[in-house]
Amino acid sequence: MPRVLMACVLAGSALATVLPAQPAPLRLADALDRAASQGFANRTATAGAAAERAGALAPLRGILPGARVEAGYVRTTDPIGVFGTNLRQRRIAAADFDPVRLNDPAAVGNHGAALVLEQPLFNADAWRARRAAGKAADAANDAAAWARTNTASQVVRAWYGAVLANVRTRALDTALASVNAHVRQARAMERNGMVTPSDAMLASVRAGEVEVMHLEAVAAVSLAHRGLATAIGQPAETSFVLPATLPAAGTLRALATEVAAMTQVERADVAAAQAGVAAATSNADRARALLLPRVNSFARLDWNSPDAPFGGRNNWTVGVMASWSPFSGASELGERRVATARAEAAHAMRDGAVAQAALEQAQTLSAVEVALARLAIAERGVGQATAAHRLVARKYEGGLAAIPELLAASTAEMQAQLAEAAARYALIVALADRLQATGHNPAWLSRLDTLQ
Question: What is the pLDDT of residues 100-121, one digit of tens each?
Fold first, then answer.
């Protein structure tokens, strides 16, 4: 017995090494997690938000202190330059005042170096620019959040679209097997003289129609998988293992009740538009602040030496500088007008986003109601088509119905099943749209992973 057990273990191990590993099932939650980090729109929006946050640091140049180190070498025969260089190097002697040497000096070199500290004291435009940049970064963050919400909605559509494609293929597998059985039966009855050749021909024609639908469904599965792979940002990976059925109608109705009870929250796109208004308003303030004076202070420590940088004795300089440019060739006027126009555009965009959000909330509410009604009608259709097919099959077996009637009943049942599956998918899409329209994340629907 132990030898037999060992042989079984070895055989199982050998099979495991020979057979290719099956890909793990891809849940909706897994697809959403991949899209969150790999989705193309998410990556683009995240990078854009990071760029805006980095750009918000630029106005700090007019607010925070700055420090720099300077170093250079100059050699000159310019009379003023030579005298000034000697004076900076503290090498002036009485002979340097000789008019001949002053007018025609020998070349002199200087290693100049300095430590410079600058402290802005009053730059109103920099403070306004800082606020505008911060609000622009907030808008970019909200826009990135809305992009993630959009991506989640697309993933829900693509994932369940691929599941629906699988369901359609399975239904058409069954329908094709059924119609082929009817064809074989019709041909047998034709040989026995029980039906006319036209009945057998009609059965073959209908079988061909179903076969074409089956081929289209198989191709749709491949395309649906590619669409899902693109939605999650991994277009090269299409070997997904997905569920064979859609969530039950009762489960979807229960979720629809939960979604209907959710309160509306601020949508990320509306928040982005609001932040855009704040950014544009602050930018208009910045443009107006260009007409105000600027006050900045500085301190520097200089070294001048003929031998090396930072050599010799140093000297220091401190000061305060005020500047005012009330007119710069009308450039400040143009900038103010541009900023004002952009602020007006931001207000229009905000108003449009609010109006669009209200419209989508009304549309999705209606869409969910219609999807629920459509599902109920489709469920009744499946029951009626199945019962009708069963009755016609019995009549056909008793010689009371012709083959075209049987095939029509079979096709009606198949179409009703496909319509019911499409109705369930439409309800899922309507719920995803409703969640997004009310400010919630469609990824909430990933709970169906544990319910279906």
Answer: 888 999 999 999 999 999 999 9
